[in-house]
Amino acid sequence: MEQKTLTYNALDSAITFEIFQAFWHDLEEQGYNDTYKLTTDIIPPLTFMMHRGICVNRDALEQARRDVERKIEEKQQELNEAAGRYLNPLSSKDCQAYFYIELGIKPFTKTNAKGQQTITCDDKAMQRLAVGTANRPPIPAAKLVQELRALHKLKGTYLDIEFDRDGRFRCSVNPRGTVTGRISTSKTIYGTGMNMQNLPLEFKRFLIADPGFVMIEVDKAGAEWVVVAYLSGDPNMIRIVEEGLDPHAATANLMFNVPIELIQEENKLIGHETDPGRIAKLREKLPGLEVARFLPRNMSLRQAGKKSNHGLNYGEGPRMFALQNEIPEFEAKRLVDLYHAAYPNIRNVWHRRIQNEMRSGRVLINFFGRKRRFLDKLGDQLFKAAYAHEPQSTVSDNLNVGMVHIYNDRSPEMLDLELLAQVHDSLLSQYPLADIGRLAACIAKQCKHMNIPITIRGRTFTIKTDVKVGLNWHDMHELPRTTNVGELKRALQKLPEIAR
Known about the structure:
Radius of gyration: 26 Å
CATH topology of the largest domain: DNA polymerase, domain 1
Number of domains: 3
CATH architecture of the largest domain: Orthogonal Bundle
Structural class: alpha+beta
Strand content: 5-15%
Shape: globular
Oligomer: single chain
């Protein structure tokens, strides 16, 4: 039996190596060796993250759990009073019975995986019921259903999470989790932790730096939009990037013909308000908005610019934009048209180029050598996936290359740095607080590693890196966008919890 086991293990190793040799030849011949090398390069830092884990404030988490349980009881009582009976917010069947049968509202529908229209009481349906229409007032019970669902999810998904025996938060990482190069995360093999890619802010406050450490987050915020600017060659987009303007306010300026200063002032006044009546009242305080080509009813002008920047580069049409942002389709069409009038090269140059490449070769290669062959049926869905691939893969590879450089940097100021997590376009780490000068030097080094020059169609640029520090992952302070150690040190010394 022992001889059989030894022989099996020897053959397993030898044959795996033989397969690798043949496989490597195919990788090189087909142009996937760069992607393979980057995948193997990111395994050591990701393994370190999985092993290290993040410290958890268990006392604060337990208190939050009790607070949420109390809020659930209070909100459920409010919902029962509003509905005139017990209404289960987690039961789609009960919600459909109440809103569509008892109240007689025309049911909202959505398309299922088979392409069929099915009645829904999902969050988007509740949002539309809560806001109301010109012919129907808002329904308070729908808003309460939304709030209760969010509270139940916060408690069940996050506050009741199981941690490892040492009390730390960990996850498993898949270095090839997505086709664009982003990692994916999930529970550990022991069933602890969870997917870290979509943690809510409320939960992040319980993830804290170890005693004597401070958390550092370097973030490629808005990075995809920057890459789209250079891929499309749109002069307006490139100007906004190179002049360092607020891209959301600048986009709103081009869309609505309202001065940027007024757009920013309106945004301070309205914020994330979505109620049309309140927004209209608030706008009465701001003279000058009458010059706007169009005023969105459910959001500020800057919010409209932001949602357009985030949603309209990859072929999204008015119907989906309306559903995603809970606005009427005619209003969504107006916003879509205004956005593409502001940045005509997105559709007229870049999208056409991608479509031609899909018709001819079906292969895209990003700046970092990541090659992807598209095999789906030619059409809108394929085109949309292709539009998204280059920006998303460029940003993910930029982050991964920067992470590898940071992890491998053995200079004195980097030795005490501990990588903790990679989430979408950001990298979280922690560093000892004992020496602010060394901390500043470490932050500057991280930014240098992340600011990788990229050349697209003859133009070279870097995607700016935002930096935040704090004692937990929620309450973090922004630092200046600089690699100057002295400037970073002065900024850190102004933060009481850092300089104490």
